[in-house]
From TrEMBL:
<comment type="similarity">
    <text>Belongs to the aldehyde dehydrogenase family.</text>
</comment>
<dbReference type="InterPro" id="IPR029510">
    <property type="entry name" value="Ald_DH_CS_GLU"/>
</dbReference>
<dbReference type="Pfam" id="PF00171">
    <property type="entry name" value="Aldedh"/>
</dbReference>
<dbReference type="InterPro" id="IPR016160">
    <property type="entry name" value="Ald_DH_CS_CYS"/>
</dbReference>
<keyword id="KW-0560">Oxidoreductase</keyword>
<dbReference type="InterPro" id="IPR015590">
    <property type="entry name" value="Aldehyde_DH_dom"/>
</dbReference>
<dbReference type="GO" id="GO:0004029">
    <property type="term" value="F:aldehyde dehydrogenase (NAD+) activity"/>
</dbReference>
<feature type="active site">
    <location>
        <position position="244"/>
    </location>
</feature>
<dbReference type="InterPro" id="IPR016162">
    <property type="entry name" value="Ald_DH_N"/>
</dbReference>
<protein>
    <recommendedName>
        <fullName>aldehyde dehydrogenase (NAD(+))</fullName>
        <ecNumber>1.2.1.3</ecNumber>
    </recommendedName>
</protein>
<dbReference type="InterPro" id="IPR016163">
    <property type="entry name" value="Ald_DH_C"/>
</dbReference>
<dbReference type="InterPro" id="IPR016161">
    <property type="entry name" value="Ald_DH/histidinol_DH"/>
</dbReference>
<feature type="domain" description="Aldehyde dehydrogenase">
    <location>
        <begin position="10"/>
        <end position="466"/>
    </location>
</feature>
């Protein structure tokens, strides 16, 4: 595999090798040499040289290209699903959701850019005219993680292109296959040279990209620890940054909630993608009056989860995507043993495949708020539960976290749910809902969950700079 720079596939000049593993079978899928800093320089230069032309295209032209991207993704849908299934490990059904949502994202920004107000005249005093004008921030570095290929990149690539920016894109070095295929599709439709550049690099390439003098903005999705490093480096040259980082999201089960519905939302919110979601509702808060009945239903539901198989009707979970993350989750399970946490689930009722980075879903109840499992992002299939006495305590427990990405409220009263939602320090809140994320909504977190917002108009605005012309 090679880098894609200035509309051509270029052999890397780096030296480090990455081996790509299928997490379901532990078989080698591919290997490649990572990009060097010289490769990064070439990609940034290509983007910089293409910027004047691309930034001056009419919105309708950019919309046309975004629709062409959506069209070619649609025509290669099955190939992309299979690549995501093999490289990331998620089920084909979940890979299908990612591909379909990425297509929706490109279509959304194709529609939005045609009607977006890049320039407008505001109310003015007599004899004074104020024109507010928004222009692309410039060359942007887009860095994405391994848990949701194609869709996390679509959330960045689509609005950046719509805004008129040129891109240097560095996907996860561990799950690059869907993104390499995406780039092949761009090449297939003769996407304008230099506007989109792909770098297959590791941390060294990413650090150089973030620090590069000709990069005006960095959009990073990943761990809070790395996000802090990105922000520190970007500060040296006052680069614009968008950071979508970690989470430890709560789900509140109120006393009047439909228990069957609450269990369904809790299980999917925690164990979808094997818990490898920054938005995973890994802190469950249930009203003490219904806790016993709720836990009984939750136990039955979790014990019925099928691991590693492709089932249509039953809830299934795939493997942990990387060996490193597999080991990290097991470290937290060892901590649970040391802390003598109370397990709700009979793990002997859940079967594991013989091969692959599979982990059984775990549920712990009455978890102390001081426990590392309660406070730290695990990024795996581990759910921690506590009870609460009243609404005030539920809100206090939900907000008692250094993260604030997402939250879910299960309640019999939508009005009550809305009132609680206003008091939660979370960027995206669902009420009686699965974790659906519409391209026209908003994504981003409070506190250590990040900085800035993606999706919707906020997404395109994050790739624009505004000035005002006074006449």
């Amino acid at each position: 595999m090679n880098n894609y720079i200035n509309g051509k596939w270029k052999s890397t000049t780096g030296k480090s090798q990455v081996v790509i593993i299928n997490p379901r079978t532990e078989e080698v899928l591919d290997s490649y040499i990572t990009a060097s800093v010289e490769d990064v320089d070439a990609a940034v230069m290509a983007a910089h040289q293409a910027l004047t032309s691309w930034s001056n295209t009419e919105p309708d032209e950019r919309a046309s290209w975004l629709n062409k991207i959506a069209d070619v993704l649609e025509s290669s849908r099955e190939v992309l699903i299979e690549l995501s299934h093999a490289n990331n490990g998620k089920s084909r059904n979940q890979a299908k959701v990612d591909v379909d949502n990425s297509i929706k994202c490109y279509r959304y920004y194709a529609d939005l850019v045609k009607k977006f107000a890049f320039s407008k005249i505001t109310d003015c005093e007599d004899g004074v005219e104020l024109t507010h004008h928004q222009s692309p921030v410039g060359v942007v570095a887009l860095i994405t993680p391994w848990n949701f290929p194609l869709i996390t990149s679509a959330w960045k690539i689509a609005p950046a292109l719509a805004a008129g920016c040129c891109i240097v894109f560095k996907p996860s070095e561990l799950v690059p296959l869907p993104e390499v295929e995406f780039t092949k599709l761009l090449d297939q439709i003769n996407f304008p040279a230099g506007v989109f550049n792909l770098i297959l690099g590791d941390a060294v390439a990413a650090q150089h990209l973030v620090a590069h003098k000709d990069v005006q903005k960095v959009s990073f999705t990943g761990s809070t620890e790395i996000g802090i490093q990105v922000m520190q480096e970007a500060a040296n040259s006052v680069k614009r940054v968008t950071l979508e980082l970690g989470g430890k999201s709560p789900i509140l089960i109120m006393a009047d909630a439909d228990l069957d519905d609450a269990v369904e939302k809790a299980v999917s919110g925690m164990f979808y993608n094997c818990g490898q979601m920054c938005s995973a509702t890994s802190r469950l808060l249930v009203h003490e009056s219904i806790a016993e009945s709720f836990y009984e239903k939750l136990k039955k539901s979790v014990e019925s989860i099928i691991i590693g198989q492709e089932q249509v009707d039953d809830f299934t979970i795939g493997p942990i995507t990387t060996k490193k993350q597999f080991n990290k989750v097991h470290e937290y399970l060892e901590i649970a043993q040391q802390e003598q946490l109370n397990s709700l689930v009979d793990l002997t009722k859940i079967s594991l495949p013989e091969q692959g980075f599979f982990i059984k879903p775990h549920v712990f109840v009455d978890v102390p708020t001081t426990s590392r499992l309660w406070r730290e992002e695990i990024f795996g299939p581990v759910l921690c539960c506590r009870t609460f006495k009243n609404e005030e305590e539920a809100i206090a427990l939900a907000n008692d976290s250094e993260f604030g990405l997402a939250a879910t409220i299960m309640t019999g009263s939508v009005l009550q749910g809305k009132q609680i939602a206003k008091r939660l320090r979370s960027g995206h809140i669902w009420i009686n809902s699965f974790q659906m994320i519409q391209p026209g909504s908003l994504w981003g977190g409070f506190k250590k969950s990040g900085l800035g917002r993606e999706l919707g108009e906020s997404g395109i605005r994050s790739y624009l700079e505004e000035n005002v012309i006074t006449i």
